[in-house]
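name: query_chain
kind: protein
chains: 1
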Amino acid sequence: MSVRPDPARSLPTDALRRVTGSLFLVGSIAFAVAATVLSSTFDWPDILREPAGVVLPAFAVGGTSLVWTWFATAWTYAILAVPVLLLPAALGRRDDAALRVATYVGATSVLLSLIGFLRWVFVVPALAQSYVTGDATTRAAAGAAWTAQHQFGGALLGEHLGQLMAVGWSVTVCIIIVRTRALPRWLGLVGLAASLLYLLNQGDILATTIPGFPVWDLAGLLGSTTWGLWVAALGATLLLRRSRRGSAPVRSRADTGAGTHAVTRPAAGAATAA
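structure:
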């Protein structure tokens, strides 16, 4: 019975590393552009903490162009799922159990964030329309529905679980980088600092349901920005880095006998990730 080859295993190490790095870089830059447009047109993310009476009319004013901006923001972030899944192979560490678990956690974090973003495309427009065109009873119902979906799809799935899992993935990757030197050690140390800063944004999220929970107002902006820059740096490092190829030959077992000429071949694993 024939076995279908694994595409990731069939690619040379350098080629796979370049693909993975390019996707990290493109995804982080594309998302940054889309998020900047969203911030300038909809006061995101500050508006997330406003009540329905502020958010829904502002969303209705934004119209179709705002819906498309949310759509672009969602799917540019979703690009990151692909390089997250490719990273173990790109680092030559497919058999690393910790990295394998972290990879699934990281991919799941992207999915949860995607759900959080796409509710602005498929759920919020109808609520906004009902709020601005309905009577007082309709507005109250739309406002209650907005709060429920916002806390579940946004605060719980997209922000709390999505961000926690993203931090868990990046911390694991950074520890592996620092311990194994699979990539420059500074990248791991910077990533750990960025992840910790990003984690502090959980205070703002928990404060939406636990009154008085400590909040650092700049944690969201600084944390997401530095974490995004680290993802871009990870991509650039993978894209520019090359494998170290060993020069020491290994003798073939068949040619170690007396009176035969030594035949050499490249050492196994010489093309593994640096």
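note: The first strand starts at residue 250 and ends at 251.
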